[in-house]
Write a structure and sequence with these properties.
- The chain is an all-alpha fold.
- It has a domain of 54 residues.
- Helix content is 48%, strand content 0%.
- It has four helices and no strands.
- The protein is rod-shaped, with a radius of gyration of 23 Å.
Length: 83
C-alpha cells in the first residue's frame, strides 16, 4: 500500500467517522482502514499524518452545534421583618 493510498483511505474514513486523535483511532481496533503503526512508520508522526490528510484530501466535516448552557434563574432573597 502506497502512502497516497493510505492517505486516501484514512481521509474517506475520517469523512464518515470524523477526524480523531491517535488514542481514539487506536481504540477502533480493526475497524480502521490502515493500522496506526503503519501510518506513523510511513509519515513519522500522527500530526504529520493529519497534516498530509488536510493537504491532499481535505476532510469536510459538518461543524457540531453546541447549545449554550442555560443560565439558572436568579432567586431574589426575601427580606424578613425583624422586630
Amino acid at each position: 500500500m502506497t502512502k497516497n493510498m493510505m492517505i486516501k483511505a484514512i481521509s474517506e474514513f475520517f469523512e464518515k467517522e470524523g477526524v480523531m486523535d491517535l488514542a481514539e483511532y487506536k481504540s477502533r481496533g480493526s475497524d480502521v482502514p490502515v493500522k496506526d503503526y503503519l501510518l506513523r512508520r510511513a509519515f513519522g508522526s500522527w500530526n504529520r499524518v493529519l497534516s498530509v490528510v488536510n493537504k491532499r484530501y481535505p476532510v469536510s466535516v459538518a461543524p457540531v452545534e453546541v447549545e449554550a448552557p442555560k443560565k439558572a434563574p436568579k432567586v431574589k432573597a426575601e427580606k424578613e421583618d425583624v422586630e
